[in-house]
Specification:
The complex is a heterodimer of chains A (369) and B (542). With 369 residues, chain A is of the alpha/beta class. Chain A has eleven helices and nine strands. The relative contact order of chain A is 0.12. The chains are: A alpha/beta (369), B alpha/beta (542). Bound molecules: flavin-adenine dinucleotide, thiamine diphosphate (TPP), iron/sulfur cluster (2 copies) and magnesium ion.
Amino acid sequence: MTTQPVRFYQVGSFAVGNRLLDPDQRTVQADRSRSNALTSGHRACQGCGEALGARYVLDAAMRATGGRLVAVNATGCLEVFTTPYPETSWQVPWLHSLFGNAAAVATGVAAALAVQGRDDVRVVAQAGDGGTVDIGFGCLSGMFERDDDVLFVCYDNEAYMNTGVQRSAATPPAARTATTEAVGPEPGNPFGQGKDLPTLAMAHGVRYVATATVAELHDLEAKVERAMGVRGARYLHVLVPCPLGWGSDPSDTIRVARTAKETGLFPVYEAEGGTVTSVSPIRRRVPVTEYLRLQGRFRHVVGADGTVHRPDIVERLQQMADATVERLGLDRPAFGEGGPAGTGSPRTGEAVGTGNPRTGGPAGEGATP
Amino acid sequence: MTDLPFGISLDVGTSLANKTGSWRVERPVYVDRLPPCNDACPAGENVQRWLYHAEAGHYEQAWRALVEDNPLPAVMGRVCYRPCEGACNRAQLDEAVGINAVERFLGDEALARGWSFEAATRPSGRRVLVVGAGPAGLAATYHLRRLGHAVTLVDGAERPGGMMRYGIPKFRLDRGVLDGEVDRILALGVDLQLGTPVTDLPAAMRDGGFDAAFLAVGAQLAHRAYIPAGDSARVLDAVSFLRDVEGADPPRLGRRVLVYGGGDTAMDAARTARRLGATDAVVVYRRTRERMPAHDVEVQEAAEEGVCMSWLSTIAGIEDGKAVLEEMELDADGFPQPTGRFHDVAADAVVLALGQDTDLSLLATVPDVTVAGRSVQVDGTLMTGHPGVFAGGDIVGPERTVTTAAGAGKRAARAIDAWLAGGTLPQRDRHPLATFDALETWYYADAPKAHRPVLELARRTSTFDEVVGGLDEGTALFEARRCMSCGNCFECDNCFGMCPDNAVIKLEPGQRYRFDYDYCKGCGICVSECPCGAIVMVPEEL
Ligand SMILES: Cc1cc2nc3c(=O)[nH]c(=O)nc-3n(C[C@H](O)[C@H](O)[C@H](O)COP(=O)(O)OP(=O)(O)OC[C@H]3O[C@@H](n4cnc5c(N)ncnc54)[C@H](O)[C@@H]3O)c2cc1C
Ligand SMILES: Cc1ncc(C[n+]2csc(CCOP(=O)(O)OP(=O)(O)O)c2C)c(N)n1
Ligand code: SF4
Ligand code: SF4
Ligand SMILES: [Mg+2]
């Protein structure tokens, strides 16, 4: 007799919800009474991954904290598109001060709450990649080092989108931005530059560091919940495609994020106290060209139909992806297929910080080769 | 100050005042597309729909959705050639959903639990004669009864079922299962007259005062070929042979049996011969394996049971204890041509399985019914040239299967119902097909197909026990859940969860979703990420 255990729920493991699953096993986003911390009427572009990512993160944090949450925002699209005075899209207590000081303001909010003995109210700081890896990095490093009780979330759209797509230290090699035009022998952003913030956070010994994308909701929500269960400094780095800056179709936002992970270019993992503890394995690995061809910012490298214009650049990007996959062991077959990330076998004792996945160069390598 | 949430001190306005829907140039709309399984089912079953209920473990609801279209699921789950699975989109991902296995599970579950059909609505006062109690006649009877018409079902045979009983062997269709499904139809209140062949249709209609008739007499006559045979040679036709096996005294064929023909009937005859004690059962066919009309699964199962095949050969003559075979070769057009090379093979009996013809003598006095070749000609509503006389199943063809017959019975019943009301059946628009490229298969968990258990070989040549078994509950549920719900929303919440503008409103369970066009900017993420392709973008009228 062929018997097979009923161990899967059609789409429950990857989709937002599933009528066959217990409501408490579905995502927060599947819940009709989710907070909608970032509500309708905001002025983000069509298909904005950042708007989506912020709602995902804050709704999950709201559930985790029973709605006792304060959000501090850096300057950037997320701030601008949500709060053109006198309107706000935030359905959560929300503060904005400056581009570079979100971590410091959040530290202050947490300290003020602590002084009042309000340990039930939790603090999230959020910023774009510019506000995190560039101008905000000093404040953030301090927050990490002091172990302030804040979850800092970086919505990484890989450039300064709000001011017109200028390069940041999170912009990937070869990408065209307004300040790294696709001209010359090395078109787009140079190889060998930039910072890998999750690695830097781990180097600070931050209690909990995780990466995620808007394409894996179960995984993202589980990480927010995890983070809210920890006291002290925590860091969450979420990849949020930007149709405007990436030259991708607004309808492709989720697909682009999913492909970033499935190529190995954007590794999804968790780390505690400086050590990688789990990775979300690649499910259906694809070559980097599948990612590049979806985006106008790489059009000089690969055509929309997959035609490779610059095999040398594709080769370098593929090597970066391969090295990341190898380093973190992302290519292992998915385990208990369909389980949300975090169910993969924990990787303890993994050495990290030995390379720079962001730049394609060894860590510590100098400027443009 | 209004009642503000914790920590909010400034009474600012909400962005809900900003109707971003005005940005949109295209709008998403929910659609239902036709799943390829539904499209392929000759009985017009809504496969996706009943699998949807089965996935939730709501088997009775699933069965009730299934029998809306086909009253014979346990039979289908055994003998249908499964065109649905051939069309299933999941085949392009891993393997087709085991639709037929789940159908059998539901059919068997219904029999085991004694689920019965809902009785007819209000009686219509109209009377319909159904001639032939095969799948076409039984299906028509069922649908006519549920539409409130009185039905007299007449058959020349001693038992109802047609070829399901007198053709398809027991080892493929358990007779208890057949009886169970037939009896459930009869329980709707049917005037069944067995052993009563109709010889003159107009007379029968006049005598019984019928308002309409459905003719479903099938193809009962064995097609003959002239083969010189000695007096003592034992030559039978497959249709009579298989019918006689149903009787109390099965025919004896001897140890070496030749079966002439290349269709499913030939396979069934050879497999039956093996079970009756033939040590050598050889199928003789004029052409090659590729050109054989028999379905692959039947050929394979026959081969497993030790049936041998002699391709590219014809039977030139039959004598006592042997047959003379002539080798054939295919010409440039693929037609078999004689070679003049002969050889003898030992044969205690020869079974001719060369196809079936229709016996339409009961129509002799109905001149306005046209017959072309072996089939009665009908219009799109299955009505013959004679008003009020409809026909379907094997007498119409061209597909001759149980499922096609059951579908014809349904269509005829609906057409008769419309005709009796003075109209014709309205043509329903079909939804556009849910093709594989409309799906986003990322969201479906990897799940290899569950296969049905098969009887061990020893018992397959010594008994008439069913060869293919059914799935247990857990496996059937697993298999149902492999369905991707092509083209039909199954409430996965992707659109609701993935809209960056909260412009999807989730309704009560079972009611699906609604777009909030005040805020939808028309990004199309919902369309891209809908696993089953149930949303499309349409241009806004500007
Ligand atoms: C050996 C064999 C195996 C088959 N296997 C399969 C299979 O696995 N799957 C599949 O889908 N199909 C199979 N088929 C084909 C399938 O059985 C037929 O296509 C189907 O039964 C046709 O249904 P029907 O209702 O048109 O006719 P039938 O099933 O032939 O029923 C016709 C009925 O009409 C009655 N009748 C005939 N003349 C008169 C008359 N003058 N007055 C009163 N009653 C009359 C007959 O007694 C019979 O009961 C098989 C056929 C054969 C012969
Ligand atoms: C000190 C200072 N410098 C420059 C700016 C202008 N400015 C506003 S938003 C922004 C870029 C934001 O980029 P990022 O943090 O990546 O967020 P994104 O808009 O991409 O989400 C800049 C340069 C500013 N507001 N303050
Ligand atoms: S520019 Fe990019 S990040 Fe900013 S609102 Fe538009 S899509 Fe979102
Ligand atoms: S996956 Fe389901 S709905 Fe799609 S064709 Fe197969 S059985 Fe039909
Ligand atoms: Mg940015």
